[in-house]
Request: fold
Amino acid sequence: MKKKLFTLFTFCILSLSFAQKAPKAIKVTYQRASNGKLIENQDPLYLFASKELSLITTDKIMQKKADFPFEQTFTDFNTKTILQLAQLKAEKSILNHDNEALGKQKFEFSNTTKKILNYTCKKATTSINSNTIEIWYTTELTLKGGPSVLGQDLGLVLETIRNGNSTITATKIENLKTAPAILAIPKAQSVDQLTYKDLLWKSRFVNIPVFTKEQIHFVSDAKSNDSIFRFASGTVIVRKVKFPEIKKGSGIYVDVTEQSNGDAYDRTGSVFMIPTDKKTSFLDGLKNGVQTLPVYENGNGKKYQGVTATNDYTPLLEMMRFFTPFGVKHFNYLQLKNKVWQDSVFYRQDISLLQPKLSNQEVYIGMFIGNYDAGGHKASLNISIHQGEDNNEKGDFILPLFNTLNVMEMAGQDYATMFDNEKGLEMTFEIPQGYKNFKLSYTTTGHGGWENGDEFLQKKNTVFIDEKEVFGFTPWRTDCGSYRLSNPASGNFGNGLSSSDLSRSNWCPGTTTNPNLIDLGNLTAGKHTIRVAIPMGKPEGTSSSAWNVSGFLIGER
Reply:
């Protein structure tokens, strides 16, 4: 009798022990650390798992406090399927089913073990995109899952370590009496994996399409419509754009996609904003003729229209300087052995400094490509806004000072040859009270496309504030040969070089030109002078050099 009672008692203990190790469902809490330190203010990561399903989610998602978009990951252990659920916004969600992801995971297994939360864990290692990932998992609970898609089918993953310094570790395991309702896969639009990734990516930022495959060419009868204005015989296009509120600290990018539509040459291009804060704007010159713009003179006998700020006029605020390649797309039929020409050229530049001029504003945005070709070019322009988290709107100061790029070249605006004397470009500007840490954004490119023209000669640019030199450098690009595959119509020389290979004064065919950000320190409130001096070369016959320089001032509160 005693033996029977002992056997029954032992059976009950074992049954109880088994029941404790095999719950209906569990909730695991994980925390993240980097280089041995816990990440501050992290959103706790949760795993819910039953025999059939697991779910990776976060505390903010469960509390309905997560910002859109956010993702949750389900694993269906019966069908070996990983399901990614993305909530793009309150009323839109998408779902991707991946039936192959679990089967494709490959691991190297080790006999090494360690204890995590009193469970014995085994080690598996894999490599993802050149990152070494250690997976520590236990099979003692009989349920499966983990804090990522990796190792979901091995057991219960209690720790992952990426490259030895980034960890996700379980801190708590809770047994649940029943599988929670949250483990039910919600209904959502089912999409393929590429579409899922694309829609998720695009939902993370605001994209403003300004121009889409617009023709920029030289014709006598260029016609505007209700949304896009065309000026200077079709070589300038302008559109009014409304920007949302942009938090300080956000990333703002301008991108252009360009193709030749008949023009074979490398051309100067510019994306710009037209300030309308003064009595006269560049828009008046576009509408009514270049002669209506204020004139700058420096004593060399010439008049330059609309290039410097005055009490009643603000020049163009340049957002991007770019250069078209030699005939990309249209001239791709000019074949060379082992050369596969690009279909188009893509330019992208960070313009986050312009946040104060764009946030909650409706402004005129324009694009210029200088050319005298009826086919010209086709170009698209987008501006993307990647919101930051800084709500402390300080109202930074931005003052456009000068822009000598003759955007109205095809309507009679003179080339920037004012640097042929010592005075160069000189103007006065005024700083209001309450600003500090000033910087000058300065963009410069040299032009004169013959052997002795400034396009191919190194010339020092010197910037003076109140007659004190604050910056001096020689703008020069030596990497132009890197973009040969965008230049099918580039001329080839007897020495084996192509024209697009040649080094130039701060530009290459098919690239953007980066502005220089010059630290000016704390300028006092009141009036100051700025002067730009460049030893520009002399004309030869009908050929002359020019320097396109633009600059705006930035100050902090």
The chain has two domains: 24-200, 212-332+347-387+394-556.
